[in-house]
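Please check this one:

***
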Amino acid sequence: MGQPAISSDHLTVHLWLHEKVLALHGSVSVPLLAITAIEAHPVLDLVNEMEGGELFRGTHIPGRMAIGTDYKLEEKAAQGPIFFDVHDKDKAVAVTLDDQRFKRLVFSVDDPEHWVQDLRLAVNRARQKAGWNELLPS
């Protein structure tokens, strides 16, 4: 499972070497200010709906694991490519983005609820520091 990390201004999903091979690309980093929504246990149906094939770049075992980028689901769910690093769909977190290469990042963490709280806090701090009035809801 990749290592998501929160800094003062970025969220980065660090992929291990074998995951980079499976995903067909490297780690993903996005500015905290680009995050528009965060949810725990988000896309169980999306991981099951993925059909793989020519519109998925990476490795996918239906209902179990997805590491890579899905271009087909963008029409159904997010209006843009979705990056997956999901090894346990029951521990998934989804992050919706604005003006980034990916429309969503979906990844597994050990404690999704705690992780969502920490990320929401970091995003709201970054927004306050940037002078934004609108914060992500709890």
Summary: The beta strands are 3-6, 10-14, 28-31, 35-40, 56-61, 65-70, 82-86, 92-97, 104-108. The radius of gyration is 14 Å. The longest helix spans residues 112-129. The helical segments are 17-23, 44-49, 73-78, 112-129.
